Amino acid sequence: MITVKESKKGLSFDIHVLPHASRAEISGIQDGVLKVKVTAPPVEGAANAACVKLLAAELGLKKSQMEISAGAKSRKKTVSVKNIGKSELLAKLQNCIAKNRLVEQTSLLDRM
Questions:
Q1: Which residue of 4, 22, 40, 86 has the fewest CB atoms within a 10 Å radius of its CB?
Q2: Does residue 91 form part of some domain?
Q3: What DSSP character marks residue 58?
């Protein structure tokens, strides 16, 4: 399950980005983090813009509602979402997970 946090700026959740992928997609969930593949290179914010565009399209939100609030130069990023309720965002994330047939992967350390 993806962890959604509330703050003064709105809601946020974490993603793990894989730039230079062969195709742009949401590829899975691992340890409560959404794994996002983008074709853009990690140069001058191109991968960040591609992440926001892909997530907005998959979740049915406007790009202006979303922004990378932390981790702009890292693969692990925090995405902030404005003007939406927590239950509505969770429902949109669940619909996205079901539509893409994503399964949650756990790390090997959790299995021991």
A1: 22
A2: yes
A3: H
CB-based contact 61:84 (threshold 8 Å) = yes
| Tens-digit pLDDT profile for residues 27-58 | 888 888 888 899 998 888 899 999 999 999 98
58: in domain: yes
Joined tokens for residue 91:
């429902």
Helix (H) or strand (E) holding 92: helix 86-99
- CATH number of domain containing 86: 3.30.1200.10
Q: Are 51 and 66 spatial neighbours (Cβ–Cβ below 8 Å)?
A: no
What is the residue range of 65's domain? 5-104
Whole-number CA gyration radius for the chain: 13
Pairwise pLDDT comparison (111 vs 7), residue with the higher score: 7
Domain count within the chain: 1
User: CB neighbours of 48 closer than 8 A, spacing ≥ 6?
Assistant: 68, 72, 77
